[in-house]
Amino acid sequence: MKLSFLPGNLHMLRDDSGYFSVTVRRETILRTRSQRLAVSKFNEIRKEMERRFPADRLFREDVGEIRRRIIGDFLVQHNSLGGRRKKTTARSTRTFGG
Questions:
Q1: DSSP 3-state assignment of 21?
Q2: CA 37 → CA 5, 27, 44, 50, 72, distances in Å?
Q3: Which helix (H) or strand (E) covers residue 77, if one does?
Q4: Residue-wise pLDDT tens digits, 35-71
């Protein structure tokens, strides 16, 4: 499980040994086996940081440009013409003659 709050460089990771660690700027704040305790601590620190690092307000032009880019990427990924095989009645196992 990974959680991140990028403006404050806050991360919660689960390592291979099963421990959850909450880090701020690569400094470990908490290391525990309890997922609930780690998520609780992460959310507590994140709420504190959200007050310190408020979200930037986007202008109407920026939102429009982001929407156009997302829709364009979506349409390119889901091309209705590509990847289809032509359906035929003859198969490779069909034999003619005796």
A1: strand
A2: 17, 18, 11, 20, 41
A3: helix 60-77
A4: 999 999 999 999 998 888 776 666 777 778 888 888 8
b or e along 14-45 (b: 16 or more beta carbons within 10 Å of the residue's beta carbon)? eeeeeebebbeeeeeebeeeeeeebeebbeeb
Rg of the Cα trace of the chain? 25
Q: What is the pTM of this model?
A: 0.55
CA atoms within 13 A of residue 37's CA, in its CB half-sphere: 9
Residue 55 amino acid letter: A
Distance (Å) of CA 88 to CA 60, 82, 85, 91, 94: 51, 18, 9, 7, 12
Strand stretches in the chain, DSSP E: 2-5, 10-14, 20-24, 27-32
Helix, strand, or coil here: 31? strand
| CA dist., res. 62 & res. 68, Å (int) | 10
